[in-house]
Amino acid sequence: MIKLFKLLTLLPMSAFATSEPFSTLDLTSHWVGYMALMLFVLAYILVMVEEFTHFRKSKPVILVAGIIWGLIGWVYSSQGLPHSAEVALRHNILEYSELFLFLLVAMTYIEAMRERQIFEALKVWLVNKGLTFRQLFWLTGFLAFFISPIADNLTTALIMGAVVLAVGVGNPRFVSIAFINIVVAANAGGAFSPFGDITTLMVWQKGIVEFSQFFSLLVPSLINFVVPAAIMHFSIKNEVATVSQSKVDIKLGGIAIVVLFIITIITAVSFHNFLHLPPAMGMMTGLSYLMIAAYFIRKSERKLQQDGFDVFKKVANAEWDTLLFFFGVILSVGGLGFMGYLALTSETMYLSLGATYSNILVGVLSAIVDNIPVMFAVLSMNPDMSLGHWLLVTLTIGVGGSLLSVGSAAGVALMGQSKGLYTFGSHLRWTGVIALGYGASIGAHLLMNGTLFDVPV
């Protein structure tokens, strides 16, 4: 038994120890590099037209990720350096694994709250308030802004979108403008919290920005939402919404699950800030809270002859296409970075334009290309920037997707939910106004957090 223990303690060292020195090859001018770039662009074109083709976005990026790393493995093996590619790939898989576990727990909690009718009860309560369309415009916007830092911008947008559709029957102009407002608000709200967007989560998990430091972006994010909303406000008639819906009761254990989700967030933050452990471990610990609660909820419901609450069904209902899409993106971008393209891009952008202009440009780019690969690329480049600049790129990538309806998951989801009332074209008509908010939020950050631009990371 003692010999077995000694063998196990030596296993990690022997498993990774090789006589081969770790080295990388510059493949930016190699035909393999060109092919990898073309395949990635092709995959991303398929991702961008998913709305029309209904070809799920995870499929092309996972395929391309496999091909890219297959090409890398072939080149490195032919050069007698197989383990260099292996180490790099394992590093990328580890980064994805931490993100995957974190998001899986968050999505499971959201699904559990949805099944317990937490969000449906909130929707009906808002619908029955008897507010004017202008009041609902601002209320749904502010709720989207303050819910998205906890529940993520996609879920928040869908909840508020359901409210707008319910009260906006027969008023397509209100629905269209309110949906634009929700997209802007949800994206802005997600920018000042590690839990509000995948990109902020990636920055936090990387250890570049501490949890409390994200709140320096609260006022700039609020300005990003309020500036375009104040202008769009005048395009909505101040009429009373007369639609009403019957009351919805929250199912057994619903409020308890909300409380447990908050405790799970506290656990993840504590693991990261005080124990210096990955936040994903804190989230997985939080998943155990939900699993234990589910046991008692299920027992209580069976006594009432109801179908028991099953936490594993909530895991199954997570957004698996999105989770697998992240895998394909992180591995594809990681492969391009290992080939040398990210270092080349970093040198071209950050050394030529400077950090401020590059980060603003990156934010605009996130309206065209999904913000997740853009942020992962920036993190992989790891340009030498101050805390203020890292917060700037977190802000711009977070809110830049609002410039176009296809620039964020919230926008794409609401286009599908709106039944043609909110489209790419209707959003584009307000892009100039949204751009004013984008510029104003950047100006606010530069003015309010100017001292952070001298703070090294």
Automatic annotation (TrEMBL):
InterPro entries: Cit_transptr-like_dom, NhaD-like
Single annotated GO MF: antiporter activity
Top-rank lineage group of the source organism: Bacteria
Transmembrane residue ranges: 29-49, 61-81, 93-110, 131-148, 154-170, 177-195, 215-236, 248-271, 277-297, 323-344, 356-379, 391-416, 428-448
Residues in Citrate transporter-like domain copies: 31-398
Membrane topology, from the record: Multi-pass membrane protein
UniProt keyword annotations, A-Z: Antiport, Ion transport, Membrane, Signal, Sodium, Sodium transport, Transmembrane, Transmembrane helix, Transport
Record localization: Membrane
Chain coiled-coil ranges: none
Family designation: Belongs to the NhaD Na(+)/H(+) (TC 2.A.62) antiporter family.
Name under which the protein is recorded: Sodium/proton antiporter, NhaD family
Organism: Ruthia magnifica subsp. Calyptogena magnifica
